[in-house]
Design brief:
About 15% of the residues lie in helices and about 30% in strands. By secondary structure, the chain is α/β, with parallel strands linked by helices. Bound molecules: uridine-diphosphate-N-acetylglucosamine and calcium ion. The site of calcium ion (CA) has 4 residues, from loops.
Amino acid sequence: MAAHLAVVVLAAGKGTRMRSTLPKVLHRLGGRTILEQVLHNLKGLAHQHCVVVVGYGADRVRAQIDRPDIAFVEQTEQLGTGHAVQQVMPLLMDFSGHVLVLNGDAPLIRPGTLERLVTTHVQSGAEATILTARLADPTGYGRVFLDSEGQVLQVIEHRDCTPEQRLNTLINAGIYCYRWERLAEVLPALKADNDQSELYLPDTLLQLANVAQVEVDDPTEVLGINDRLQLAEASRVLNTRTLERLMRAGVTIVDPASVTVDDTVEVEADVIIEPQTHLRGQTRIAAGCRIGPGTLIEDSLLDTEATVLYSVLHGARVGALSRIGPYAHLRSESVIGKGCRIGNFVEVKKASVGDGSAAAHLSYLGDATLGERVNIGAGTIIANYDGKHKHHTRLGDAVKTGANSVLVAPLSLGDGVNVAAGSTVTEDVSQGLVIARPRQVVKPEWRPSYESS
Ligand code: UD1
Ligand code: CA
């Protein structure tokens, strides 16, 4: 599209109805904040400027977004959506073209719908084009009134509507395309003669001659988030869309009703996701993995054909064909090699485990580097913390630790070292067998004192 386009996102409101200290647009759904999701939806839409109007919690919002291609304008007092756009006028003084204005609290709009709105607007030559929807329950939204030719006459806010006007189910989605020069002309004339005594952006439409509308096919796209119920509803809609996208791309989801996957997660074909599984953040699951049931994976990478059963992973990497769980906990900076086994009640933190190694039962592996084909016996604990500092442990290839051994860091065990069961190893061992436990003492003649008296 050759036309010049500027994008303005309104995100200055507190979001009173959220009942939160966090600015509304920083609440999260599908792995992003509401505002990040709105900005994400702009991908694919060529534009020259992107301006976000901030106000309540401005510093927090700015810090969260932090993108060089986005400019911020501050609206110090929240006097309405029209007032918010007025704040952008100095920045776009020399701009000529069209401006797409979006409410920052409607994250479910599809990129294709935005493209359709902009294209229709530019091609029709309208002064403004607004996005509308027919909602079964339009409560809370501004109602859109059309003339006999289908042109937009005006938008009346729910609270300003008469009971008859409220029967109108055509609503304003809060997404508008304007010819910037015309909007800049009529913006200064806005008046606050409404129930909230605010300057309403939709009132600009009254001053324009030729206002068109584009109605969305899927009413879930226009959902605005004003309270926690709408946040939950929007999360559900986004999750359903993500699961459908994955299933179409060849992922099996056994029970979609009990599975949540962030929009930010990548899953390759032929992955099987079992019930009660939650995939979050910057997670990537390669082809052929089997995940769940009962698993939470956040910011983690799984290579091909790994399996994870009833486990929790945060910031972990798992190699191909490795088996995790049941009941394993891989914490940040855990790197598990290929063909490993991390089993029942094993916790791993900031440790790398070489290919073909196993820790099958009841272990803690923290701040450690394990070679290949290491076997960690049941109940082996790495004592990495002296109460003040964390220390590192290095185990060579093919090290074997006996059941219930304690490896006191800092510690280094050479290739092939075996640790006898029940040992507490405090000094480095370069080769062979280490037995570090008191000798067993047996006193056959001994009797309890009460027997001899
Ligand atoms: C708005 C529309 C309504 C539409 C609905 C769609 C107005 C007057 N009404 O109502 O017609 O049906 O969205 O969801 O525009 N904001 C600012 N500064 C302000 C006030 C608001 O930046 O002074 C931002 C908010 O942060 C929010 C967006 O504008 O992201 C919309 O504000 P909100 O108060 O939620 O408007 P609604 O009552 O939902
Ligand atoms: Ca809203």
